[in-house]
Amino acid sequence: MAKILKIYPENPQENLIAEVVKTLNNGGLIIYPSDTVYALGCNIFDIRAMEKLAQIKKIKLEKAQFSIICNDLSHLSEFTRPIDTSTFRYLKNNVPGPFTFILEANKSLPLAYKGNKTVGIRVPDHSIPQMIVAKLGHPIASTSIKDDDEVIEYSTDPELIAEKYDHLVDIVIDSGYGDNVASTIVDLTGSEPEIIRQGKGEF
């Protein structure tokens, strides 16, 4: 059964964040809030955890396009090819925020991402994922939680989310109701930024 932790963004309790980090280091899966929708996350360097994440999404890991959640842009060089000044400036002007940026991947990607030519980088404007990544010491892999409902695309109620994913994840962070609009996906691999999916982020 998933453990529900009530953590609020205004004053996240360090001991609860530490519990989340311990779970990630032990290969556990978490559900956490962001500046857009609730999401599933795991340790990006734990291949078994990544496989579990793919199973929940009913896809093969090698086909998965999980975002990499960072707390700032300092991890970029670990996962992406060198980027030019204008692209970096563009990123800096829009993070943290409700955007996922597609960038060219380098050859040092974690095992689960090997062979990927591009990678999605996200820096949510939300204290909880930022604190988790900071305490963990490296980014987490992530995917949005979608709803089966035809009207509401994304689940917003953490209690209902916990009920649905009770036997699939280790921790559900209840931070109150989430949003139901996902991040805006922007492809920065070309000469000009290209919006792949219009979401919450506005230019």
From TrEMBL:
Top-rank taxon: Bacteria
Pfam families hit by this protein: Sua5_yciO_yrdC
Domain YrdC-like stretches: 14-201
InterPro entries in UniProt: DHBP_synth_RibB-like_a/b_dom (IPR017945), Sua5-like_dom (IPR006070), SUA5_domain (IPR052532)
PANTHER family: DHBP SYNTHASE RIBB-LIKE ALPHA/BETA DOMAIN-CONTAINING PROTEIN, THREONYLCARBAMOYL-AMP SYNTHASE
Listed name of the protein: Translation factor Sua5
Taxonomic placement: Bacteria, Pseudomonadati, Bacteroidota, Flavobacteriia, Flavobacteriales
